[in-house]
Amino acid sequence: MAVRTADRAQPGPIPPSSLDPAALLRIGVADHLTRTAGPCHRPLRLAKTVLAIDHGNGQLRALTTQVVHARCGNRRESRCPSCARLYKYDTYNLIAAGLRGGKQTPDTVSAHPRLFVTLTAPSLGPVHLGPAKNGQLRPCHPRRKGQGPDCRTWHRADDRLIGTPLDPESYDYAGHVLFNALAGKLWSRFTIDLRRHLAQAAGLPRDRLAQEGTLSYAKVAEYQTRGIVHYHAVIRLDGPDGPGSPPPGWATTELLEDAVRHAASTAVVTTPEVSSVPSRALRFGAQIDIKALETDPLSGPGRVLTETAVARYIAKYAAKSTETTGIELRPLVCHTCHGTGTSHAELTTGESITRFCDTCHGHGRDHAAWTELDGPGVTAHARTLIETCWRLGALPGLDALRLRAWAHLLGFRGHTSTRSRRYSTTLAALRAERTEYQAALNAESTPADLGEKTTLLVNTWRYLGRAEIGSEQCGSPPTPAIHAGGPR
Ligand SMILES: [Zn+2]
Ligand SMILES: [Zn+2]
Ligand SMILES: [Zn+2]
């Protein structure tokens, strides 16, 4: 049960008219999106009870109880196109605020050094090539005899072979899933190295960097067709107090670009040594793409990107996951034993015994989820990646990576979309803006019989289950009587 409280002595919701025009525009667009995107695909049924606590005698009384429907809030387009649309819009606004200001981020950030960076995964063996970015067909891997596996096919964009290894026997499947599993750690090593290289380039001792500048970023992980993640990120260099402070004199876009290039090549994560899998050093691929960001869509010769294009690009991938590789699976571990294959039971004597899990009979798999792997949509390559996760996930020494639990995401367990604390605003703040607006609009509907003595309202929420698709008013999320909050 989620309990929300609000003190009537506190100031009420912000009147809609006092919101700034940019906020009103965001609220208006979000409202339009939710109305046109169709109903939520997985709505929740909630029982909402408003309780009033009488300050005079401490008595608790229920004012109203009603069943309300709430949006599922899923970010993935394939799960709920409607909620994903809203999520994408919020992500877009969050990224854009860090580039051109807005939502408490000063617009001076647009003059700070900032870059759009793509850090790719390394090669783990040649894979079939699809058409070029402009859609032009090209020969896959024509090689001379003796120069490794070749393929002279001009693969069309919908060819399922694209992204699968030319020679599955020699492809480094273990390296592939370990890269996915440790991509988040590699990113954090990259940010540490980036700060080090920045300090070096500025001629500062490492511990002085924070006194002169702040590094902010927002990133998204995108699955490449071969089923490995790579990162797209906005990286910005601010002054010591974050987005509101001017960067130091030494902070130029060129210096930031050099430091990014350097850090992308030096960042490394070493995998643990386990019996059948030798330790390896995981690094980003040699293909590093760094682009300057431009405010004016008409200026700039080829190398520049507009802020809008970048914000849209990141928002697009924030709403996706493995579907870009052609697969979409649910967790493959048994729900009862979480993949261990065992359960614990207490005997009448008080003794505890370990036995095979009754649900999966000891193999730790969710039978129905594994059956879906036999479907026509799953390539042999994807299946091998999943089986590699399963095999490595059982090895002591790699258990911390929880490869079995994340096998359906090909080992990747990081958050798809993240940003540093001082990048710009937060998704929660953008959502709160709408909720506060809605609460202000509904303030008049607050029960009028509270009386002077009643000072505290408590909203309680109870989950009742999934509602039927289309059965609810997803465009009108539950609005608490006083407090602008609700379960997410
Ligand atoms: Zn939904
Ligand atoms: Zn090919
Ligand atoms: Zn089980």
Short description:
With 488 residues, this protein is α+β, with helices and mostly antiparallel strands. It has three domains: 2-76 and 427-466, no CATH class; 81-327 and 412-419, no CATH class; 342-409, no CATH class.
Run of helices and strands? EHEEHEHHEEHEEEEHEEHHEHE
How many structurally independent domains? 3
**Discrete helix count:** 9
Name the helicity range: 25-40%
The number of distinct β-strands equals 14
Sheet having the most strands: 6 strands, mixed
Termini, distance in Å?
12 Å
What's the SSE blueprint?
Elements: E1 2-7, H1 21-36, E2 44-54, E3 60-70, H2 81-100, E4 114-119, H3 173-202, H4 209-212, E5 214-223, E6 229-238, H5 253-266, E7 269-270, E8 281-282, E9 288-294, E10 304-306, H6 307-318, E11 342-346, E12 352-356, H7 367-372, H8 380-393, E13 417-419, H9 427-442, E14 454-466
Helix pairs in contact: 1-2, 2-6, 3-5, 3-8
This protein binds zinc ion (ZN) (3 copies).
Write up this protein.
This protein is α+β, with helices and mostly antiparallel strands and 488 residues long. The chain folds into three domains: 2-76 and 427-466, no CATH class; 81-327 and 412-419, no CATH class; 342-409, no CATH class. 27% of the residues lie in helices and 19% in strands. It is built from nine helices and 14 strands. The strands form four sheets. Strands 10-9-4-6-5-13 form a six-stranded mixed β-sheet, sandwiched between helices. A four-stranded antiparallel β-sheet has the order 1-14-2-3, with no helix packed on it. A hairpin with a 5-residue loop joins β11 (342-346) and β12 (352-356). α1 runs antiparallel to α2, α2 (81-100) runs antiparallel to α6 (307-318) and α3 (173-202) packs across α8 (380-393). The longest helix is centred in the middle third of the chain and has 30 residues, at 173-202. The radius of gyration is 26 Å and the shape is globular. Mean pLDDT is 82; it is low at 1-12, 298-303 and 472-488. One zinc ion binds at residues 128, 140-141, 151, 153, 155, 161.
